[in-house]
Write a structure and sequence with these properties.
- The structure holds two protein chains of two kinds.
- Chain A is α+β, with helices and mostly antiparallel strands.
- Chain A folds into two domains: 31 residues; 106 residues, Phosphorylase Kinase, domain 1, CATH 3.30.200.
- Chain A contains four helices and five strands; from the N terminus they run ααβββαββα.
- The radius of gyration of chain B is 22 Å and the shape is globular.
- By secondary structure, chain B is mostly helical.
- The longest helix of chain B has 44 residues.
- Chain B has 15 helices and no strands.
- Classes of the chains: A alpha+beta, B mainly alpha.
Chain lengths: 148, 481
C-alpha cells in the first residue's frame, strides 16, 4: 500500500469517526419516543396541573395521514401572555412518525422548522414559540405523561 | 489574465466557460428560493414583511454584496467560499469554511430529500408519505440522480438548474402571486386585517428569538454562484449582475408569494406541522381550482430537486479544489473528464445515503434530529461568519487588489456591510445554543454543550487533515471516474 493510500484510509476513517461521534451520541442520549395510547386530553391535564388557564379549546384534525383528531388550545399565563398549542392523536406509530418526518422536512431556508413537536405516546404536541415560559411550566407535567 | 481564457485547474483539466449572468443568477435562485418557506412565513400576516426586511438587511444584502466583491476580486481562483476565506485566512480558514458548508449539507440532505419525496407523494397518493420504503426509494432516486447530473459537469448541471428553477421555483411563485392578485381583485375576502405600517413591525422578544435567528438564514445560499467562478465567461462583470438579479428575484417572489398565501388562508388554518402541500391544497381549493394541486406538487418537487442540486454541486466543487491543492489525499482528488470532483461526489453520496437511512428508518428519534439540526445551523453560521470576516480582512491585507465590484463607502462601508452580516450570523449562532423550554436544567446544559461539541467535531477535521498533509498528496493531472 502506498503512502498516499495510507493517508486516504486515515482521512476516510477520521471523516467517518467525526460524523459518527455526534450522531452516535445523539442516538444514545435521545432515545426513541415509545408509542402508547394516552387517554383523555394530555395537554389540558398538564396545563391545569401547572396552573395555567385554558382560554379556549377547539377541535382540529391535521390534514395528514393517520391523524384522528386533537385540539387547538389558547393558553394564558399570569402575565397575560397568550400562547397557542396544538395537539393531535395518531392511529399508529407509523403515522405518528411520518407526521414527525413531514414536520422536520418543513424547515425555513437552511434553518429549522418553526416551533417544536413534542411526542407523548400517540399524541404530537406542536408548540410555538418553544422558548416561552408556559412550555417551561407545563414540561414537567408532560414529562409525567411521557413516562406513563 | 484574460477573463475568457480557460484557466487550467491544478489537475490539468481546463474548465468549460459555459456560464453567463442568467445561469449564475439561476444557481443562486435555485439554492435560495423555496416555496417551502411561504406558508411558515404567511402565518405572520403583514408582519412577515418586517421579518423579511430583517432577513434582507442582516443577511441577503450583506451576503450578496460580499459575494459580488469577493467573487470578482478572486475571479481567477477556483473554489468559491474556500478561495475567498483562504485568501484572507490561509488554508486553515478556507478549508474550515468549505468543510463546514459541506458537512452542514450532509446532515441537511435527508431533510430536503424527505421534503421531495413527501411532496411528490401528494401528487401520486398522499398516503405514500407515511411509507418508509417509498420515502427512501424516492429520496435515493433524487439524491443519486442529482449526483449523476453533477457527474456530467457544468454544462449539463447548469442547464438542469436553469430549466428546473424556472419550472420548480419561479413558475409556482408567479402562479401563487397571480392567484393572490386574482383573489384580491375578484372581491373575495382578504383574511388579513387592513394594512398599516404598524402591522409590519415584527414582535421582538424572548419568545420570537428563535424565529428571528431562522429568518436571518432564510436567504442562505447566495454564495453558491461563487463556486462556479472558473466556468463563468466574464466573471468580473457577470457576478455582480447575477447577484443583483438573483437577490431581486428571490426577495420579490418570496415576499409577494407569502402575502398571496396570507391573503387567502387564515393563519389558524395554516397548520405548520402539516406541511406546505396542505397549505397549497387549501389555497387552490379556496380558489376553486383543486385540479391544480397535483401539478403544483410536481412543480414544487422539481423545485426541491434543483435546490438539492445547487447545494450538492457547489460545496462538493469547493472541496474538490481543496483536494486538488493537496490538502486531502489523492483519493479525494479524482476529477472526471467533465471536470467534476467525482470522488467527493461519491463520498458525499455514500455518507448522505447512510444519514438518510437513519432519518427514514429511525424516525421516532425526534429529539435527536432536533439537536442535529441545531448543529447544522451552527456550522452554517461559521461559514458565513468567515465569509464576512474575509471580506473585511481583505480590505486591510490586500487594499490594492483589483476589485471590479467594490462595496461603496470605503472602510466604513465594508465594516457596515460585513459587520451587519457578521452580527446576524453570530446572533443566529448564539440563539442556536438556546435550549427549548421543555428541557430540564440538566438537559439544557447537556443540549448546549452537546451542540457546541458536535459542531466542533463536524468542523474540526480540516485542521487534522492539514496536520496529516503529505507532499505526495499533490498529484497533478489526476483523473478518475
Amino acid at each position: 500500500m502506498t503512502q498516499g493510500n495510507n493517508g486516504s484510509w486515515a482521512v476516510i476513517l477520521i471523516l467517518m469517526l467525526f460524523f459518527m461521534l455526534p450522531i452516535g451520541w445523539l442516538l444514545v442520549t435521545y432515545t426513541a419516543e415509545p408509542y402508547h395510547v394516552v387517554s383523555g386530553e394530555p395537554l389540558r391535564e398538564a396545563v391545569q396541573a401547572a396552573g395555567i388557564t385554558v382560554v379556549n379549546a377547539t377541535d382540529t384534525t391535521w390534514p395528514v395521514g393517520g391523524a384522528v383528531g386533537g385540539k387547538t388550545y389558547t393558553l394564558s399565563d399570569e402575565s397575560g401572555n397568550i400562547y397557542t398549542i396544538q395537539t393531535q392523536a395518531f392511529d399508529s406509530v407509523e403515522s405518528r412518525d411520518a407526521a414527525v418526518q413531514l414536520y422536520n422536512s418543513q424547515s425555513i431556508g437552511r434553518g429549522r422548522p418553526v416551533g417544536k413537536l413534542i411526542i407523548i405516546g400517540n399524541y404530537l404536541i406542536y408548540v410555538q414559540p418553544y422558548t416561552g415560559k408556559i412550555l417551561k411550566k407545563i414540561a414537567p407535567e408532560l414529562r409525567k405523561l411521557q413516562a406513563a | 489574465m484574460s477573463e475568457d481564457s480557460a484557466t487550467p485547474r491544478k489537475n490539468g483539466i481546463a474548465p468549460q466557460k459555459v456560464l453567463g449572468i442568467f445561469a449564475l443568477a439561476m444557481i443562486n435562485v435555485a439554492a435560495v428560493l423555496s416555496i417551502r418557506n411561504f406558508p411558515s412565513m404567511a402565518v405572520y400576516g403583514w408582519e412577515c414583511i418586517g421579518w423579511y426586511i430583517i432577513g434582507t438587511v442582516l443577511f441577503l444584502i450583506p451576503i450578496s454584496l460580499a459575494g459580488a466583491e469577493l467573487a470578482t476580486m478572486l475571479a481567477d481562483k477556483d473554489g468559491g467560499v474556500y478561495a475567498w476565506c483562504k485568501e484572507a485566512f490561509g488554508e486553515k480558514g478556507g478549508f474550515t469554511a468549505i468543510f463546514c458548508e459541506w458537512s452542514n449539507n450532509l446532515v441537511w440532505f435527508p431533510t430536503v430529500l424527505a421534503f421531495i419525496a413527501s411532496t411528490l407523494a401528494f401528487a401520486i397518493s398522499p398516503d405514500l408519505a407515511s411509507n418508509p420504503v417509498y420515502l427512501f426509494v424516492v429520496m435515493m432516486i433524487a439524491f443519486w440522480g442529482t449526483t449523476a447530473v453533477a457527474y456530467f459537469g457544468e454544462n449539463l448541471s447548469s442547464k438542469f438548474q436553469n430549466y428546473g428553477v424556472i419550472l420548480g421555483s419561479i413558475i409556482p411563485s408567479i402562479l401563487i402571486i397571480g392567484l393572490g392578485v386574482y383573489w384580491s381583485v375578484s372581491g373575495a375576502a382578504i383574511v388579513l386585517p387592513p394594512f398599516s405600517l404598524g402591522e409590519i413591525v415584527p414582535t421582538l422578544d424572548l419568545s420570537t428569538l428563535p424565529f428571528f435567528a431562522t429568518v436571518i438564514l432564510l436567504f442562505a445560499g447566495m454564495e453558491m454562484a461563487g463556486f462556479h467562478a472558473l466556468e463563468t465567461r466574464n466573471p468580473r462583470t457577470d457576478f455582480p449582475k447575477a447577484m443583483a438579479i438573483s437577490a431581486v428575484i428571490i426577495f420579490f417572489c418570496t415576499v409577494i408569494a407569502t402575502l398571496a398565501i396570507a391573503f387567502v388562508i387564515p393563519a389558524d388554518q395554516l397548520n405548520l406541522a402539516a406541511g406546505v402541500m396542505q397549505a397549497i391544497e387549501y389555497f387552490f381549493t379556496a380558489l376553486n381550482i383543486p385540479g391544480a394541486i397535483a401539478p403544483m406538487a410536481v412543480l414544487i418537487t422539481i423545485g426541491g430537486v434543483v435546490s438539492l442540486a445547487a447545494w450538492l454541486i457547489g460545496p462538493a466543487k469547493g472541496l474538490g479544489v481543496v483536494a486538488n491543492e493537496g490538502n486531502m489525499p489523492p483519493l479525494f482528488n479524482r476529477t472526471n473528464k467533465y471536470g467534476s470532483p467525482v470522488a467527493v461526489l461519491v463520498i458525499q453520496a455514500l455518507i448522505g445515503t447512510f444519514i438518510s437511512l437513519l432519518y427514514v428508518f429511525l424516525p421516532s428519534v425526534n429529539q435527536a434530529y432536533w439537536v442535529l439540526s441545531a448543529m447544522t445551523v451552527e456550522l452554517l453560521c461559521i461559514v458565513y461568519f468567515l465569509i464576512f470576516a474575509a471580506l473585511i480582512k481583505l480590505r486591510y491585507s490586500k487594499p490594492d487588489a483589483p476589485r471590479p465590484f467594490k462595496i461603496p463607502g470605503g472602510i466604513p462601508g465594508i465594516w457596515l456591510i460585513g459587520g451587519m452580516g457578521a452580527f446576524g450570523v453570530l446572533f443566529a449562532f448564539g440563539v442556536g445554543l438556546m435550549p427549548t423550554g421543555d428541557f430540564t436544567s440538566a438537559e439544557a446544559v447537556s443540549y448546549t454543550l452537546g451542540v457546541l461539541l458536535g459542531t466542533f467535531l463536524l468542523a474540526v477535521p480540516p485542521l487534522i487533515f492539514l496536520k496529516m498533509k503529505k507532499p505526495g498528496w499533490i498529484v497533478s493531472g489526476s483523473k478518475g471516474g
